[in-house]
C-alpha cells in the first residue's frame, strides 16, 4: 500500500505472522514452524507470503532442505523481536495498571 506521496506503508500485519516468521527462521523449516504454531504448512506459507508482499521483499531463500533467511530476511529478523517486545510490554503495562487501579 502507499500513502499520498507514494511511499510504501505496511498496514495491519498481525503480530502472529511476525512470530511465525521468527519460528521459520529458528527451525529452518516451514513444516516445523507450522507444527510449532499449530497451523497447516499451507496456512503458514500464506502468512509468510503476506508478510513478504507487505514488506515488498523476499524474506527467505527456499531450497530442497528448507528455508534460510535472505539478506532482507536477516535485516527484518533484527527488527522483528523488538516489534514484539514493544507490543508485549505495552500490553503487560496496561494489564498491570488495570489490576493496580481496580
Amino acid at each position: 500500500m502507499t500513502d499520498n506521496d507514494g511511499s510504501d506503508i505496511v498496514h495491519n500485519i498481525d503480530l502472529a505472522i511476525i512470530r511465525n516468521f521468527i519460528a521459520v527462521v529458528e527451525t529452518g523449516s516451514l513444516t516445523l514452524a507450522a507444527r510449532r504454531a499449530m497451523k497447516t504448512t499451507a496456512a503458514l506459507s500464506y502468512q509468510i507470503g503476506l508478510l513478504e508482499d507487505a514488506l515488498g521483499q523476499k524474506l527467505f531463500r527456499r531450497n530442497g532442505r528448507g528455508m534460510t533467511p535472505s539478506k532482507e530476511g536477516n535485516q527484518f529478523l533484527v527488527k522483528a523481536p523488538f516489534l514484539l517486545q514493544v507490543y508485549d510490554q505495552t500490553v503487560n503495562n496496561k494489564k498491570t495498571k488495570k489490576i493496580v487501579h481496580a
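Residues 1-9 have pLDDT under 50 and may be disordered. Strands lie at 60-63, 66-69.
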